[in-house]
Amino acid sequence: MGSIRVSNLGKAYKQYPTRWARLGEWFSPSGKPRHQLKWVLKDINFTVEPGEAVGIIGINGAGKSTLLKMITGTTQPTTGSVNITGRVAALLELGMGFHPDFTGRQNVYMAGQLLGMGAEEITALMPGIEAFAEIGDYMDQPVRVYSSGMQMRVAFSVATARRPDVLIVDEALSVGDAYFQHKSFDRIREFRKQGTTLLLVSHDKQAIQSICDRAILLDGGRVAKQGDPEAIMDYYNALIAQKENSMVQQTVLDSGKVQTISGTGEAEIESVAVLNDKGMPVEVVNVGERITLKIGARVHAHIPELVLGYLIKDRLGQSIYGTNTHLLGSPVKHARPGERVEYAFSFPANLGAGSYAITLALHAAPSHLLANYVWKDRAVLFEVVNIDRQHFEGVAWLPPEWESKRG
Amino acid sequence: MLGMLRQLWRYRGFVTGSVKREFQVKYRSSMLGGAWAVINPLAMIVVYTVIFSQVMRTRLPGIDSAFAYSIYLCAGMLTWGLFAEIVGRSQTVFLENANLLKKISFPRLCLPVIVVTGAVLNFAIVFGLFTIFLIITGNFPGIAFLAIMPVLLIEILFAVGLGIALGVLNVFFRDVGQFFGIFLQFWFWLTPIVYPASIVPESFRSFLNLNPMSPLIGAYQQIFVNQQWPQWSSLAPVAALGLLLCGFSVNLFRKRAGEMADEL
Predict the structure, then answer these.
(1) Which strand (E) or helix (H) includes residue B148?
(2) What is the ipTM of this complex?
(3) Is the model's pTM score more than 0.80?
């Protein structure tokens, strides 16, 4: 139950030079087409297996929404087909079709009926919907007095009142307050555990990486890449930073993880190492041990302001700590071609046990989005082990000074 | 086709709910509420009956009854109202619900069904009042009254066929809506509703027969004014035309539904 198969899917919008041209095409006996096709999606092929969670990412205009619309059936494909098994719930435009003059409760009925439910069924689900939305007495007030967050809550609660076999979620979820976002994500996770297939569109890296088994990157209306969410997210980030004359390259490391290197190449990273306090390269670090990240960079062109940034990520790809020399206040000014720059960052490894990777980037100005000379994912890896501290949970080591008082 | 009907049946809750909400929206913020649903048509009937029979003393040629012209007028006006409401609202229904059509997946044919159901309900109210008036004034047509059911059915069939076709075309060519608004007014006056067909000069009478609405309206007038069964044979062409239009519309709709969502 609950699979999605998209084969050869393509969508083109017809563009007519004038309105008369359409009329001519409809009624001319020759049936000669007088429109041009504007392709927004082409050759999309992928399958989402039952119980799988797949994330779709891509820059604005990559065709994500059009793809979702075709999967949910509001837009018809020009070529190819979408096969969905099981009952589908789509969280695309939450609160669509809510009538401002009716109460939340009446709108719940309307929204439920739009999903093809009967009145008795909605009545039976109503207590659960009310409890999940948590808007109290507002349920019996007209929707026009609701805040947008409250509307969202009601809409989400109706759309997910029954566990669907396939759940399709658009970025819509990022509205609402932090509390409800957590709550709705918990519900989605709960559905997943019970076997719901999930298709998620988001720009939110954390969301994609924490829920999805696989990610699909759309670029220019085509599937640019699909695979492990972390690798795809890295590729996506590199793609955003990509400028002309730039390259993006991914290689599989010994660990099985994918390394992404991209950039325009005006500067490169020659050496990276993690050293202990005796200056020896290490791969295993004790919790709290002082370590030094040593980086050697080579400059190939005149660069007015060269910034080096590093980002420590845990094994799930979540960012733990990142900074750059611009933020730290001393970027290298007026770097000359052929010059070598050595960096050393010393800090205590106040991290929980586990494996960590460091991403490096050489760029101009505060962010790598402006000019990205080189971006190197997983430039160096190290393992943190807990040798002599009390056992603790999590990725950060935040030892407390504590006391307890009795009586 | 069967699949379409099954889908519609599954969404019957949405259809009935929408019709109910339409009525609620109309009378929501008024103090008398649903009473207006009766007061409005009641006023209309009072105007047609009291003003024409008592104040203007209009008489129908050949029939010497105070209420004959009023009944003649009501028989035509009320049923024309049903036709105009179905066609008029069907032709804008897709445009008005553009948001819903673009964002939510549901059987599209629900929308015209909602329009027809709403229009029929409105008609039922005003027609119920008219029937009460007939009974009170002793003009109830008796057994011939039953004949209005098949006539109504043919009228609705014709209206739905025409309405959906115009509705789909209107999405692509907005001129259709503008044009039809004007056309509908001419059509009303070219149909013997306010005036009897007998005052039309002989030479134009054949043109009148080309109008598919004149046999329909004529049938109602026959039932209510003359209290006789309508001439069924005169209705056959309209019934055929209605069926043809419905087939054409459903076909057009199926062919263009996808493009329609892109155009909205």
Answers:
(1) helix B148-172
(2) 0.73
(3) no
Q: Does B17 touch chain A (CB under 8 A)?
A: yes
CB–CB contact B172 A22 (8 Å): yes
The 10s digit of each residue's pLDDT in A178-236 is: 788 878 888 888 888 898 999 988 877 777 888 888 999 888 888 888 888 888 888 88
CA A59 vs CA A38, A206, A239, A319: distances in Å: 19, 16, 9, 21
| A26-59: b (≥16 Cβ within 10 Å) or e | eeeeeeeebeeeebbbbebebebeebbbbbbbbe
Q: How wide is the angle at C-alpha A227 spanned by C-alphas A225 and A230, nearest 5°?
A: 105
Tokens linked to B89: 């609202």
Closest chain B C-alpha to A115 CA, distance in angstroms? 7
**Dist. CA A61–CA A71, nearest whole Å:** 17
Closest partner CB to B17 (pick from A75, A101, A110): A110
Q: Is the pLDDT of residue A244 over 50?
A: no
Q: How far is A91 from chain B (nearest CA, A)?
A: 10
Our measurement of the distance from residue B175's CA atom to the centroid of its chain's CA atoms, rounded to an integer in Å, reads 22
* CB contact set of B40 (below 8 Å; sequence gap of 6+): none
Q: Could you tell me how many residues make up chain A? A: 407
DSSP lists the bridge partners of residue A299 as: A267
Q: A249, exposed or middle or buried, with CB in 10 Å at 0-12, 13-18, 19+? A: exposed
Contact between B142 and B86 (Cβ < 8 Å): no
